[in-house]
């Protein structure tokens, strides 16, 4: 967030968004690769793949009701044909693949969850969601949406360390998960 706050009117207009996207994916990799996750940027999609190959995560910006599963949400920016194929394959599994040695199956067949984030009015909202369809160029259909409770990062005095340092002796942060309307 500090890198994004450092952007000025002299930067390219899209720089804050690109920087936030890149840094979020970098943070995921820096956090998960030491835990044996594998990072890939194949087809310009930044992902970390779980050590078992069961799933992957990529961060993208969202629009709409990010963090509120009662409201519709979609990718903020249009996505191309590679992302469309990846999204359509979520939940479909191949028996054999050329990537089986590294990932347990074809990389494109690993279900890819999106860490959707939205920065609006100084407040960061996020959710972990499993996309299943694109209508047009936007990802807008989801199998699962899990809202994430984040500290208020809009406050310039907010401690970013709160995102990765537990505040109790249970060994991890508390994440409030609610299933609505089921």
How would you describe this structure to a colleague?
This protein is an alpha+beta fold and about 180 residues long. The protein has one domain (about 1-165). About 20% of the residues lie in helices and about 30% in strands. The chain contains four helices and seven strands; from the N terminus they run H-H-E-E-E-E-H-H-E-E-E. Strands 1, 2, 3, 4, 5, 6 and 7 form a seven-stranded mixed sheet that branches. Strand 3 (about 55-65) and strand 4 (about 75) form a beta hairpin. It is globular and about 45 Å long. It starts with a helix and ends in a 34-residue tail after the last strand. Residues about 160-175 have low confidence and may be disordered.
In one word, what is the shape?
A: globular
Beta fraction of the residues? 25-35%
Q: How many DSSP-defined strands?
A: 7
Radius of gyration, whole Å:
17 Å
Helix share bin: 10-25%
Question: How many discrete domains?
Answer: 1
Q: Count of DSSP helices? A: 4
- The end-to-end span amounts to 35 Å
